[in-house]
Hints:
The complex is a heterodimer of chains A (about 200) and B (about 210).
Chain A: E1 3-5, H1 21-50, H2 64-89, H3 93-120, H4 129-160, H5 170-195
Helix pairs in contact in A: 1-4, 2-3, 2-5, 3-4, 4-5
Chain B: H1 8-31, H2 33-63, E1 74-80, H3 88-98, E2 102-110, H4 115-119, H5 124-143, E3 148-153, H6 157-167, E4 172-177, H7 184-187, H8 190-197, E5 202-206
Parallel strand pairs in B: 1-2, 1-4, 2-3, 4-5
Helix pairs in contact in B: 1-2
Amino acid sequence: MATVDHAAHPPVAHQSSRVDARTLGMFLFIASEIMLFGSFFTAYFFVRVAAGTPWPTPPYQLPVFVAGMNTIILVTSSFTMHWALQSIKRGNRAGLKGGLVLTFLLGLSFLLTQILEYSRIGFTPHTDAFGTIFFCLTGLHGAHVFVGLTLLATATIRAFRGHYSPEHHHGVEIPGIYWHFVDVMWIVVYTTVYIL
Amino acid sequence: MPNPLRSEGEAFRFLLGAVVYFAAIAIAGVINEWAGLVVFIVLTIAVLVWWWRAQKREAKPVEAMAVPHGPDDQRRILVVANETVGGAPLLDKIKELATGSNARVLVVTPALNSPLRHLTSDEDAARAAAQSRLDRSLAALATNGVQARGQVGDGDPVQAIEDALRTFGADEIVISTHPEGRSNWLERGVVENARERFAVPIHHVVVDLSREPG
């Protein structure tokens, strides 16, 4: 029999070998998102607070109500996403499919409404610093929504092809986590850019 | 404090918290700029205090986390194997360790997956294949008089061991691989990594499937 027995008392583990890979990955992800959005928010606060630029620059107005409706749409999509995952955990495939389709449609509505908002807002990124920062911040978030929709589309197609089960649903869970964080970022953007 | 990226449920609760936090600041800010600032400061301090207290609460259970263990005379053997899970040398080693003692055997089969499928979280097929190998292995063990239970583990064998150790306080670990040169696990240093990481005796069994009957 070919066996190789190792020492009964292994060496003390180095601290680095104790780092949980998933935890490290999550924190790196958070750190990258914070740096990315943080750089844009730094520019925003510099323009608005340090440079004292009026927000929004007269005579322009931000569509607070439409963006508010869009916020409700996006937050609602998080509820449908949560419903989808809870459904598959209970073995309810119809709930999974329904939740994913609704989440995708709500996310798509958000993105289309934002594009419509851009076309009617009356200023462009070239107008002034205010316009540049506005489009950069909301556009950056829009790009995140687009990525989220791509993940949701993949999960939805897989759900309709019979994938996922109460035991195995990582393909829904991971896009779900990403989607909730996209929503959190929008709440930050909406509060600071549109409301305050 | 729960890591908001660890599960969808925690991320959802984090979102609800963010909605409440920013809604309170926005409402106060619309009423009065200074009120918004005060609400922001108060809520932020409250969140930080809550986070600090949650950290302190969680520190104790982690340090004192007791790994479940059976009676003193019971020997717990954790077996980690994948394609070699039904190999004769592995079965012989398990029988050798289990003989003459009140032994409990847990066989963990990592759900090996391709990098692309891993990135897209498409692991259903990998888990099904691992389960199939595990079932055959458990049947072979039962035929040889060893009662064992099994579970499909993480695709990373070291992670699979760590996960199993959290619920199964193993006295010994058996890692089964292909021979040197044909073993992806040996190339990745799985056995060495496991030795560094876990304070449990580790046996390395080499199974040459080309010499296996059938």
